[in-house]
Amino acid sequence: MRKSRKRERGIALIITLLILGLVTTVLLSSSSRTSLDLTLSTLYGNRVRGKYIAEGALKAALIALREDAGMNSYDTLDEIWSRPSPPIQFGEGEALITVVDEERKFNINSLILPGGLAPNERMVAIFQGLLTELGIDPLLTDAVLDWLDSDDTPRPAGAESEYYSSLPHPYSPKNDLFDTLSELLLVRGFTREVYEKLAPFITVHSSGKININTAPPEILRVLALGEEPEFQGLLDERSVEDVINYRSENPFEKPEDLGNVSSSLEELYRKTRIREVITTSSTTFTVDAIARVGKGRYRIVSLLTRSGESVEEISRIVY
After folding, report:
1. CA 79 to chain centre
2. Which one of 44, 53, 63, 148 is at 20 to 30 Å from 250 when CA atoms are compared?
3. Phi and psi (nearest 5°) for 215?
4. Are 145 and 158 in contact (CB under 8 A)?
5. For 199, which DSSP code?
6. In this structure, which CATH number among 3.30.1300.30, 3.40.190.290, 3.40.190.120, 3.40.50.1240 belongs to the domain 43-103+283-318?
7. Cα→Cα distances 283→102, 106, 216, Å
8. Spatial contact of 143 and 158, defined as CB atoms under 8 Å apart
9. Cα 73 from chain centroid (whole Å)
């Protein structure tokens, strides 16, 4: 009888411990889920708030571009849209806005003439000069032209179907205009290192002309290439420095104002076709709106096009 009672008490104790263990496990599990749910809820809430802050920042940039268009017909580095902006506080969050005009860059789609067969020799000379400026092999231009043109005959340093189909993961050359800048990574010779060095200076979305009010020195120094030899050296280091100093005080309102900088640049503008590749206004802008709330971040990179006072979004990427 005593053994029976001990056995019963032992079984009861085991059952009690099992129940206690199950209850404890359930409680711990519930507590863990509640903590996780709270964390996820907070992260989701911060992301939602970040989304609205980034959207608001993008809207502010759009309004600034629209207002700027009504003020003058040229674009400079000292306007409301182009001035560096410190982080803007929005309650518990903040927004950082950067606006860059694409006309300060070289449009690689301009390397080929309409029709897709013949290269634009002037733009080819400028692009090769830019590659040289950046320490990149200018022969890579052939590969870009082969990617753009509509035939399947490779240039001496280029590549067409025969090369791309022989790769471990074969694909076909596009034989058309670039839709995105990162597409350049598919072109023969364009490693990640080359791409990252070149990307800040090129675009695939612009009017195709260079805004001399906003272009960096690396671009300005090559704009005379493609002209007759006696004019190619007129935009040398000293002249480009003069251009930058001049535009900081006296923005170029129209392309011919380039001639106001010096007699040599007046001659360059008057006697060459540089007027066909330069402008003083911008039509396409990239807005990078980053919102931070707590430890979360929401980012919108939007491409905008402006015609008169009308500003429209072409595309966006959300991170």
Report:
1. 20
2. 63
3. -65, 140
4. yes
5. G
6. 3.30.1300.30
7. 8, 14, 17
8. yes
9. 24
Kindly tell me the burial class for residue 290, based on how many C-beta atoms sit within 10 Å of its own C-beta (0-12, 13-18, 19 or more). Answer: buried
The model's pLDDT over 244-254, given as tens digits with 9 standing for 90+, comes to 999 999 999 99
Q: Which residue has the tokens 């080929």?
A: 112
Domain ranges for the chain: 43-103+283-318, 106-202+214-277
User: 126-168, pLDDT tens digit by residue?
Assistant: 999 999 999 999 999 999 999 999 999 999 999 999 999 999 9
Structure tokens at 135: 């320490």
CA atoms within 13 A on the CB side of 120: 20
pLDDT at 273 over 90: yes
The confidence score (pLDDT) of residue 115 equals 86
Tokens of 155: 């240039």
Mind listing the pLDDT tens digit for each residue in 108-125? 999 999 988 899 999 999
CA atoms lying within 13 Å on the CB side of residue 192: 0
Cβ-based neighbour number of residue 77 at 10 Å = 17
Mapped onto helix, strand or coil, the DSSP state of residue 97 is: strand
Q: Are 43-103+283-318 and 106-202+214-277 in the same CATH fold?
A: no
Task: Please give the torsion angle defined by the CA atoms of residues 159, 160, 162 and 168, in that order, rounded to the nearest 10 degrees.
Answer: 70
> Where is 45: in which H helix or E strand?
helix 2-69
Tokens (6 digits) for 14: 């085991």
pTM of the predicted model as reported, rounded to 2 decimal places: 0.84
Number of Cβ within a 10 Å radius of residue 216: 13
CA atoms within a 13 Å half-sphere pointing along the CA-CB vector of 165: 5
